[in-house]
Every structure is written in C-alpha cells, then in structure tokens.
Design goal:
Helix content is 49%, strand content 16%. The protein is an alpha/beta fold. Strand 3 (40-46), helix 2 and strand 4 form a beta-alpha-beta unit. The two termini are 17 Å apart.
C-alpha cells in the first residue's frame, strides 16, 4: 500500500496498565501494525494515561480517555462534530481536546475491547460499550472492532444497542465461531472471524531472561503457574462459592504432591483496592493463606509487562488461570492451560487449539476437579504440547486477519 505520509490509527478500549490482557493486544498492535499495513502513527486513547506514559515508548501517542471523559467532554464534542458534518462544515472544529482531535484525525479507529455487548454485565458496562464505539461513529470515523468476544444478545436492551452500534462500524472481528454465530443472529453482514490479537505479541529474549530471574528462587524446578481473577471471584460470590478458599486448597494439594507453584496477577494496579481491573489484593490474600514461607511456592508480587508474564507462563508445565489472556499466553507459548472461566470466550478459543473440556465453568468449581485436571494435563503434557504446536500456525494466521481488516478499511474507506 503506497502512501506519501503515515496512516493515523487511534486505539480505544485497551490500556497498557492494569489489565495485561488488554496490554497484550495493544502490544501486538504496536509490534505488528506497521509491518502489516505500512507506516503508521498510533494514538492510544487510554483510561490510565499517567501510568501508560511511563510504560509505553515515546513512539506512540498516549491520550487520556477515562470513562467519565467519554460522557464529558467527548460525547458533546462528538455530537457537535455530527452537526458540523450535517451542515457541511469542517468537523475539526470539534477537536478541542487531545482525544477528540485524535479521533477526528484518525484514518481508522481500532476498538480493542476484549469483550463487549455481552448479556449480564450490567447497565454501566453496556453504556460504556455504546460510548466506546458511538462517539467515533458520531464523529464520522471508520471504526474496526478488533477481535473480541461479543454476545449473547438475549437481553432486549443489549440486543437493540448491539444491533444499532455494531451494524454501523466498518468491520466486527469475531474472536471465534460462537461469537460469529451470535452476531449472525443480529443479521450483521460486516463480520469477519479473526483470532485474538494477543497471539501476535512478540516476546523479546530480554523478557524471557527477566522471567528466569523472577522464578530463580525455585531452583530451576518445573512449576505450575496460577493466575486468579477478581472477576471470577465476584461471580462465585453470587453463588456462595468460596473461590479463594478453593484456590487455597488447590495450592496446598499441589504442594503436598511435590509440585512447585508460581502465583501471579494478570491484572494489576499496585496499591489500589480489588476490582475487575485489579487482582493484586486477591493474589496477596491467597499468598498469605498459603504462607509466605511455604517451600516450592512463589508469589510474583507487583505489576509486570505482558511480555514478561507470557515468558513466565511459557516456562510453566501447566497454567491454571481465570484470566482469559493468561490462557492465550499459554496457548501461544505451548503451555497447556486449565481454565476456570465465566464466559463463552474461553471455550471458543480453547476449542480452536485444544479440547474445550479443559475449561471448568465457575459454577462447578471445586479443588478436587482442578487437581484431577492438573494431574491429567501433566500426564498428557507431551501430547498436548504437540497438538498446540500443530494448531497454532492456523490461529496465528487467523489473528493476522485483524490487520487485513484494518488495511481494507484504509484502502477502501467507504466499503
């Protein structure tokens, strides 16, 4: 694709701080976008601007777009841009903030939300999903929804909002066949199946070296990696399931069996309370329950880049995870994962590489089932790694369709 000046791409829905799954997708875009579509200038609209400016290179623009800023001033400015376009006046007059200017100047806006327009997540999340895509659409932007889980759409309000918003974006990348089926139920024609962008994240050797240093206290022993989730803990609480207690029993069971365990957080905001974006307090509570001095147990406290965490997962014999993108890191690096999940997003990706029976719905979580599944995975480790190696190239090729969609939007903006 020949062009005299770089394309401008603005990203929404992903930050480098807090949730390292979103950071994985964002890092993949930074790693691969130019080699896939040509010279680009990337502007990252983030909910954590101060933290992200410290974590990201100066080559990308980091612009504040916190949730409340979407309501004001971005929504009024988007409405102004809409009116200006209707009156055939320059919409750039609405570019009064860094975020509104970045959106108005973007050749493509890439939405990197991991999951959106999904039933049962509550009205605030639905409003956030609407604003995330509705604002750039009002501004006249070409919006591509990068690979993500969407649906189901049984709830009337969610269904109506999804049909209205998703039908107006340039392309929706469905992360797997179940999401694609949900979108077909809405009658959408702008859907492409594409695997998760995080499969394309590069892991420099320096990050692998950092992971070896972090796990060095285990003396080179094989280990089970454990990645809990405050989100799944919340779902378990609704059913009276003691998520923390069960994970404590799992760790104790693994240690009694002579296994080593590495506990880490895949969504981290140091010093902040537990939330859907912060697993640190949950991990710390679990570590205290196990006992800091327990032999063969290692808690990697703190926040690490997604590349380092992937390297930690790569070095494990098995990953036990409730965080989706920790699971993706395992699949991408050849480590068999066992997942305790809450959404169809886990099964639809696992089924593309391994058996989705390795996903345990949170509703039936028990320490006995987890421990038995870990033993089974360890017994079949060589076979599972072979199957992952055979399946991964097709999934990586599917993930590259995200960039094909972006390139198509840049080449043929009105299609």
């Amino acid at each position: 694709m020949k062009r005299g000046k770089p394309f401008k791409v603005a990203t929404l829905g992903a930050a480098f701080s807090a949730n390292k799954g979103a950071a994985s997708m964002l890092q993949a875009v930074i790693d691969r976008l130019e080699e896939e579509v040509g010279p680009c200038r990337i502007s990252i609209l983030t909910t954590y601007p101060a933290e992200d400016r410290l974590g990201l290179s100066a080559e990308v623009g980091v612009i504040s777009a916190r949730p409340l800023e979407l309501l004001f001033p971005l929504l009024p400015l988007a409405l102004l841009a809409r009116v200006l376009r209707f009156l055939r006046l320059p919409p750039h007059w609405a570019g009064l903030t860094g975020a509104s200017r970045a959106l108005l100047e973007a050749d493509v806006v890439l939405d990197l939300a991991g999951i959106s327009f999904s039933d049962g997540r509550g009205l605030p999340i639905l409003v956030y999903n609407i604003l995330m895509d509705g604002i750039p659409l009002l501004m006249g932007c070409r919006v591509v929804k990068g690979s993500q889980a969407l649906g189901p759409f049984r709830e009337r309000l969610n269904r109506a909002a999804a049909r209205r918003i998703l039908g107006r974006v340039h392309t929706v990348c469905a992360r797997g066949p179940r999401t694609a089926a949900y979108l077909r139920e809405l009658g959408l024609k702008n859907v492409v199946e594409a695997a998760d962008l995080a499969f394309l994240m590069k892991v420099p050797e320096a990050c692998r070296q950092k992971a070896r240093i972090l796990t060095a206290p285990l003396g080179g022993q094989d280990y089970i990696a454990l990645c809990p989730s405050a989100v799944v803990r919340g779902y378990c609480r609704r059913l009276g399931i003691d998520y923390l207690g069960i994970l404590g029993e799992v760790v104790q069971g693994l240690l009694r069996a002579g296994r080593s365990v590495v506990l880490f957080s895949h969504s981290s905001r140091p010093g902040r309370p537990e939330s859907r974006m912060n697993d640190d307090p949950l991990c710390r509570e679990l570590a205290e329950r196990v006992g800091a001095g327990a032999p063969h147990f290692l808690f990697l406290e703190g926040s690490y880049p997604p590349t380092v965490l992937r390297a930690v997962v790569e070095g494990a014999s098995v990953l036990v995870s409730s965080r989706f993108h920790a699971m993706v890191s395992a699949l991408a690096s050849g480590t068999p994962p066992l997942v305790v999940g809450w959404s169809h997003k886990y099964e639809e990706v696992m089924s593309q590489l391994l058996n989705d029976e390795l996903v345990i719905p949170y509703q039936r979580l028990s320490s006995q089932e987890v421990l038995q599944a870990v033993d089974t995975i360890l017994e079949k480790g060589q076979e599972l790694r072979r199957r992952l190696a055979e399946s991964l190239p097709s999934v990586v090729a599917s993930a590259r369709r995200n960039f094909e969609v972006v390139r198509h939007a840049l080449e043929r903006p009105d299609v």
